[in-house]
Design goal:
about 220 residues, mainly beta, 3 helices, about 40% strand
Length: about 220
């Protein structure tokens, strides 16, 4: 019995850590961050970001559906794709509010009413900052597991936001100075909350700051 216990312990010690995802949620290949991020150990997965200018989205484009459902005018929208899903973020009139849409691999949304979006977020800005991260938990991944999305507000000198996950760190490029909407499948459904382990980095990868961000569903 002692020998068996020693063998099991040795196997546990030599077990390989979880591998980083090979693909983002849209099926595109996952790639590492373009620079080495100071203080970030292990693999990195670079998420995709696209700035959509007014008039660029097609009539039936999901981003257009997101914006029009909120009754917003033509605005610059930030599309993001990470391992967990797709999000859109854009500012409200005069920059006093923030809107977002979330989509998982298995959204459960009603296409006739809301397009592919299974989660929405709205926040008022006070002195240019959100009152809370506006966590949403309405989406699911391909395995049917609940996933959450929330906004992280990097400071003006940050070029990348890195969020620690199981076996890797998801890296989000900052765009247009807007909050970065990030995803996770590590959520506590009993408390409708999650915690993000975050670091912010300059364009050359140097670490600027690190912190834990606690997010809970509002209301």
């Amino acid at each position: 019995m002692i020998g068996l216990a020693l063998m099991l312990t040795a196997a546990a010690c030599t077990r390989d850590p979880p591998s980083p995802p090979a693909h983002l949620s849209d099926g595109s290949a996952a790639r590492p961050a373009p620079v080495a991020l100071e203080g970030v150990d292990g693999p990195t997965v670079l998420t995709r970001v696209e700035v959509v200018q007014p008039g660029e989205a097609r009539q039936r484009d999901p981003t257009t559906a997101c914006i029009r459902a909120a009754g917003a005018p033509e605005v610059v929208a930030i599309e993001r794709v990470d391992v967990h899903g797709t999000t859109v973020t854009y500012s409200g009139p005069e920059g006093r509010s923030l809107y977002g849409c979330d989509m998982g691999a298995a959204s459960g949304a009603d296409p006739a009413e809301d397009g592919p979006w299974c989660g929405r977020a709205f926040g008022l800005l006070a002195d240019g900052r959100l009152r809370d991260p506006r966590l949403s938990l309405g989406c699911r991944n391909a395995e049917g597991k609940p996933i959450g999305f929330a906004w992280i507000e990097p400071t003006a000198d940050s070029a990348y936001v890195a969020v620690l996950s199981s076996g890797y760190s998801a890296v989000y490029p900052v765009a247009r100075g807007l909050p970065v909407r990030v995803g996770t499948d590590d959520v506590d459904l009993e408390t409708s909350s999650t915690t993000f382990d975050v670091t912010e980095h300059a364009g050359d990868g140097s670490r600027l700051r690190g912190y834990e961000l606690e997010a809970a569903v509002s209301g």
